[in-house]
Every structure is written in structure tokens, then in C-alpha cells.
Amino acid sequence: MPERPAVLTKRTLDKDLDKLTHVEDATKFVSRKLVAPGIGLVFLGLAMLFAGVYVFDRPGAVLVVAAAALAAYMAMNIGANDVTNNVGAAVGARAMTMAQALVIAAIFEILGATIAGSEVVKTISSSIVDTVQVPPGTLGWIMMAALMAAALWINLATWMNAPVSTTHAIVGAVIGAGVGAVGPAPVNWRVMIEITSAWVTSPLLGGVIAAGLLFMVKTLIIYRDDKIAAAQRWVPVLIAMMIGGFTSYMVLQLEATAFSSLAIILFGVGAGCVGWIAARLFVRRQAVGLENRNSSLRVLFQIPLIGSAALLSFAHGANDVSNAVGPLSAIVRAVGASPEDVQGHPPIWVLLIGALGISIGLLLFGPRLIRLVGEQITKLNPMRAYCVALSTAFTVIVASWLGMPVSTTHIAVGSVFGVGFFREWYTRHSKRRIAYMRRKAESFATDEPEDPNTHEVRRRYLVRRSHFMTIIAAWIITVPASAALAAMIYWVMFALFV
């Protein structure tokens, strides 16, 4: 009896080809995850090359080139962790897409860092540790250790989805490395008290301002019978406030200016009036055909929210670029590698490394924490998000003008919490809101409506307490953790290289 041939459900060649296809798909999936780190490594190399071009024939060139790589690494970590606060509210409110937010933030971060970043850089580079009491060689290694420790800590926090303060990290690292190198004497404790007090007051101030703006928006626009007419009246005023404040700040950045305080105020008022006229025309055109509903207000607040996010990105670049390039500026000055560094002002190439690094870090690694800040702490619509962004921007701008390295993370998240806690209070206690909700309920039902607050208060808190406690814990631990890490890294560097 002849032997029956074997029956193959699928040819062997087809199986092998399927395996190759699966391997190819797996390779593409894995390699896609390696694109961002690869681009980051290329930027580190370019930063070293960029620094080398400027200092190759000057003393301490090798130390400066290594510090440039660390500063670039630190800047990318700031972009990945910290810049999320600038656009998180706008993305959470769906006023712009993730791609639009990333591009706007990157552009305005670079502008803020290069135009207005030098004052806070001076504080980080020379005011925390007294450079007169520390030998230049030792100061260079202190700043190297601080950069590495702060960058590693922020990298860990970003991986854990914790929006920690990059300002806390670098200030704690500079103190830790300084104390580890020469003891506590050279640390300027008066400046540290000023910085610490700003850390405490700035998020509270941001929260209060954001809550006040939201109260004004709710009272003057949202709970009015004719919302669209109220928005046409008051949205241009809010835009004028934003434009006027930013104009005054920009005039202050002109070092050669001899303008008095009155002249600066007049510049701001004039710019605000021009902005008000233009905004009235634009808002009136946008309001045509809109229904008298809260959802229509989202349209009218979209452009102001995008403008406030751009303003906040500018302010963040002006303040937080110091966290990356402040130590680099101190190293450049300590080893005499840049005679152009006059009166503590950092060279422009130093600011560019920080500005470009922040933008690249944001573009490559920023989206995860943008979603956390913008969507998971409290629910944001364009009106609430505008209050958060404008409050944070004004607070950071004032701090940058004073040369104070405040935490943008503190202020932005404090503003988000301020908005959320104010909504909880307003839901329970606002007579205007209760009366408005009753009128609205009576227009849809003939029987006696239930208390409009009952369901919302019973359903959930408007601020998620778990995120509140997690972020507070991350803030508390950042300074001591980065300080201890910086001291250990300094001791290792001293043992190996000095």
C-alpha cells in the first residue's frame, strides 16, 4: 500500500517568511524607541563641538567642553520635565494639539532664554556659592558635579512621571557639591533664604492670581445671562492685560535704556490699548453665529490661551535656562575661557546651548508629563487654562526681572491647584452660580429642582488629592536628594581626576 504524502497546512517557505516579517516589525518597534535617545546623543556631541570652537585655544578647554555636554544633557531634561507646565494647560483644555504646543513652546523657550535669561544665570553661577572664597579649579569641579547630579535626578523624575522642580534640583546640587568640596562657609545663606522664601511664596501667589482671574471670568462672563455679549466685552480686556504686562517686561530687558518707571508703565499701557482695540475686532468677528452656551466660550478663549502659553514659554526660558547653563557659565568664568563674560553676563553661545537643549528635550521627551499636568490634576477648559497660564507667566516674569530662580513647576502646578480648589469652593458657596443653575434648571423642568450643588459635590472632588500629595512629596525630597548626590559625585570626581 503506497505511503500517503504528508499534508502541510502551510508551506515551510511561507512560515519562514512570516518569521522574517515578524522580526522586521519587532526591529522597527525597538528602533523607534531608540530614535529620541539617538537624537539626544547627537545634540550632546554638537554641544561639545560648539563649545570647543569657542574655547579650543584657551585655558581649561577640556573642562569647558565636558561641562557643555553636561549642560546640554541638563537642558534636555529640563525640556522633558519642566516645560510641560507651559503648555500642559492648553493641551489639557484642547485649545491646541500636542504638535502645535511643542512647536510654540520650543520657539518661545529659545527667545526667552537668549533675550532675557542672563539675570537668573548670574544668580545660579555666582550668588549661591561665593566664588571669591573658592579656588577657580575647585569651583569648576563643584559646578560639574552639580550639573551631573541635577540632570540625573531630573532624568529619574521624568522616567517616574513626577513633575519635580528643576530649579530645586540645580540649587540643591550646587549647595551639596559646594559643601562637599569646601564646607558650608562659602555658601551664601542669605541668598538661599531669599530663594527658599520665593519657592514658598511663588506657588501660593500663582494659585491666588489664577483663582482671582477665574473668579473674574466666572462672575463677569460665565454666569451672565448673555455670555457672548459679556465675553465680547471682557475677553479683549484680558488680552490687553497680557500684552501690556509683556511689553513692560520687554522694555525692562533693554539694558541701555534710560526709561523711568513711569515711561515703562506708559509703554505697557499703550501696548495694552492697541491690543484691546485689535482684540475687540477679532473677538467680535469670532462671536458671530455663536450660541449663548458655555461651549461657545471655548472658541473665544482659544486664541488668548495660545497667547498665554507662548508668553509662559518665553518666561520659562528666561528663568529656567539658568538651571542648565548657570553652572556652565561659572566654569567658563572660573577657568578664564571666555574674556567676553563681563560682570557675570554669560556668553551668548552658553545661552544658546541651554535654549536649544530645552527645546530638543521638550520635542523628544515632553508629551508624557504634558498630559499629567494638563489633564490629570484637575479638569481644565480654555477659560481655566487661560487663568493658569497667565498667572504663571506673570509670576515667573516678575521673578526673572528680579533675578530670582523660582520654580516654574511650583508656580504652574500651584496655579492649577489654585484653580481646582477655587472651583470646589465656588461650587459650594457662590450665590451667583447657585442662582444661575436654578434658573437654568427651571427652564427645563416645571417641578422644584434639586439643589444644583448636591450632585457635583457628592460625585467627586475637583482636585485629585493623590496627585497633590505626590507632587508635594517630590518637591520636598528634590533639594536634599540632589544635594547628597552632588556631594557624592564631587568626591568621586575629586578622587579620579584631581
TrEMBL record:
Subcellular location: Membrane
Superkingdom to which the source organism belongs: Bacteria
A Pfam family this chain is assigned to: PHO4
One GO CC annotation: membrane
Transmembrane residue ranges: 34-55, 61-80, 101-118, 138-157, 169-187, 199-222, 234-252, 258-279, 299-318, 348-365, 385-403, 409-426, 468-493
GO terms of molecular function: phosphate transmembrane transporter activity
Primary localisation category: membrane
Keywords per UniProt: Membrane, Phosphate transport, Transmembrane, Transmembrane helix, Transport
Membrane topology qualifier: Multi-pass membrane protein
A GO biological-process term: phosphate ion transmembrane transport
Record has Disulfide bond as a keyword: no
Matches recorded under InterPro entries: Phos_transporter (IPR001204)
Family to which the UniProt record says this protein belongs: Belongs to the inorganic phosphate transporter (PiT) (TC 2.A.20) family.
Protein name listed in UniProt: Phosphate transporter
